[in-house]
Fold:
Amino acid sequence: MSWRSMDTQSLNKGESLELVLTNESAVHRHFVQQEGSRLRLFLVNLSTPVDADITIEQLGPHCVSEVYALCLGRGDESSRIATHMRHLATDGESRQLIKFVLQDKAKGEFLGELLIAKDSQRVDATQTNRNLLLSPTADMRTRPQLEIYADDVKAGHGASTGQLDEQAVFYMQQRGIGYNDARRMLIAAFLKDVLAEMTDSRQQEQLLNAIDSVIEQVQ
Amino acid sequence: MSELIVIKDLHASVAGKEILKGLNLTIGTGEVHAIMGPNGAGKSTLSAVLTGNPQYEVTGGEVWLRGKNLLAMPPEQRAREGVFLSFQYPVEIPGVSMVNFMRTAVNERRQYQGLPALSASEFLRLMREKRKLVQITDKMQGRSVNEGFSGGEKKKNEIFQMAMLEPCFSILDETDSGLDIDALRIVSEGVNRLRTADNAFMVITHYQRLLDYIVPDYVHVLADGRIVKTGDKTLALELEEHGYAEFE
Structure:
């Protein structure tokens, strides 16, 4: 699907938008940002697999775009998140933090396209993808794609996929915390970090509680 | 004094290599035992095996804590029975706050003992009281467990957790490593104030220095997986002077 067929949303000069999408199975969104606008998007999938294509275009200078996504996959679910972050103007910022936690035979895929166009100087862009595999049969694929044509920019990206830190689990057990509780505390901590920047504290609280209750079922 | 922990003919291996080769040791209440020895003798293996670290395999022997079979328990149950390890390398746990971590640990222990959970205000009062013991600041307490702590802060934090959990048997695994003299004094004084007639300490150290502050009743030399010599605190001074050459 090309971005032209997606829902397009424009942010006018100086406008701010914080959007929280919870447990939507298909997210095909296109955002166009004018000068000085701020977009902050949260994608939270705790109980529904997601297929997401998110395109953000910074058309004016001094825009800020943030994407925070967390996806918990179980059974034989398959989730995919693709972001297309396009810096087409100067002095823009973008931050992306994408996390998957996969158990059983769940599959996850992250595609992160980051474009900084030729004259888009002084852009500061970061893209971070961290994934936790809770079973040996879970599968995660990550494809960061950075295309940077301007020279005076900062662009950082990092991707890592790993298992729970068994040393941390043992440390917690040594203090009397049960094995499964220790694992759940670590998984919850891993996920909750994605919601740290949410402005709406009531919604944040609800989602943190939702994480706790869904983690209860993790084996 | 009564027998607190009895270790009989303990054998253990890691990654298929035998490290402990028939270790015997009995520790009574109110006692401090120092375990000294050359690198690779099995000092850290002993602490790992007593606390149930899954990376180590017990291949023989018995360990009894107040008459209960310690080796049959999972690590968390050993902790709830009152076994505490001050880790040589405390683990950083990003995203888990000290408060949440300690409250969970303290209440698990209380539940095991048949005591009601502490309320939020009771718990915070307890934390305030105990952190004075090792001069832990408010700021440290608000952070994630050990995350970004200096070496000295991590060791103080171990002793703080010991104070919170009130174990009956504490193992200090190279607690002196990486500590400057001020931190060493604070940590040692904290430990000394936690000594009672009912608990006991196993102090694992390579150097005599720590034992100037935490004075042991017994000093054991661990070499090649066994206790090969036992004495009083003067043995530590001898070892400091002559090294471990005769045991290697």
Summary: Chain A touches chain B at residues 165-168, 170-179, 181-182, 185-186, 188-190, 192-193 (CB under 8 Å). DSSP finds three helices and twelve strands in chain A. Chain A has one domain: 3-163.
